[in-house]
Amino acid sequence: MTTATASFSCPKSMTYGPCAGVHEDGRCEVAEHPCVFLDGRPRAWAGVHRPMGEPVHPEPIPLTPAGADFADVLARRQIVTSDFPIRAARRDAVVAGAAALREHVDAVLIGEPPSVRVQFPPAYRTRLLRAEGVGVWSSLNCRDRNRVALEGELAALADAGVSAVHCITGDHNRSGRRPEAMPVFDLDSTELTSIAKANGLLVSVAESPEAQPRVQRPARFAQKAAAGADLCFININSGPHIVDGFLRAVEALGTRTRAVVCVPFVVDVGSAAIMTGLDSHLMPERFIEGVLDADDPREAGIRAAVALAEQYLAVPGVAGVCMSGGAGRGLELDYARAMAEAARRLGLR
Ligand code: SF4
């Protein structure tokens, strides 16, 4: 079902591409050929493809109680969320991270980033975090699970009381720590979105306005919204002008949405190294340098994140921010505490 140019095909078998991993010169995220979605407009939403038979259109159902509660908060005020930077697959780390962040964020965004790919399954982590009184915004990727496994995970997330699910296609296995694993990519993020809505979940999707082909990004998000996406997570970017331009372009297409903007969170050399390793990310000018050059990088990083978050929150259509990044090994808990302090200073809760 890939929209192919020349004789290439998408290594992620995407129906509704392009992904955010397109290189600046148009090369594919992982293959030595151009991304196959560079030309023309993004494919219009036409259902979940099937290798055999016509596409299907999953029927949305009302939000779960946890999803409805979170939607109610979003309707009343802006929110602050954070990544959940803890040692992977350890219950004690989940509990400690929850204690650090519980009072200060509306939800934590849990995922499976390239550097810590093997994690407890999303629904199990959601259960652990809910037991600690933390709201959970869970990523779910199409890289490691086929559509049957994804449907089971979505049902479990709904049952576990997840606040929202972040539907992503996912980085290819060739990036990150487990390149030997077999990639799946049975579905993509747009298709997963529609199935999540059929499980009563509040759904966000990701966009990177500065990823190539930039001209397609607003229209691509509009197709995800057509599939059911409630919110747009805007990945780390060059600044508020980028977010404003993207949201106005989405509006011009007749699509209304609200955005949660990722704010880079850097407090030391280790967290800076993780940030600069995410090659699809652009950054506000001298953001990292300004933190690392300070006498007290931890305090400078907290202040820089708060100041940038306030600028994003002033952009019409921005519903909230997410403190985003990762910690050096052994520094996860202090990093989570610094994120909590930044969230506290924002004063949104
Ligand atoms: S850049 Fe992404 S969407 Fe484009 S061909 Fe490669 S994997 Fe597919």
TrEMBL record:
GO molecular function annotations of the record: methyltransferase activity; oxidoreductase activity
Pfam families: DUF5981
GO biological process: methylation; tetrahydrofolate interconversion
UniProtKB keywords: Methyltransferase, Oxidoreductase, Transferase
InterPro entries given in the database record: DUF5981, FAD-linked_oxidoreductase-like
Superkingdom of the organism of origin: Bacteria
Keyword set includes Oxidoreductase: yes
KW Glycosyltransferase (keyword) present: no
UniProt feature coiled coil, ranges: none
Domain (Methylene-tetrahydrofolate reductase C-terminal-like) ranges: 9-38
Protein name, entry field: Bifunctional homocysteine S-methyltransferase/5,10-methylenetetrahydrofolate reductase protein
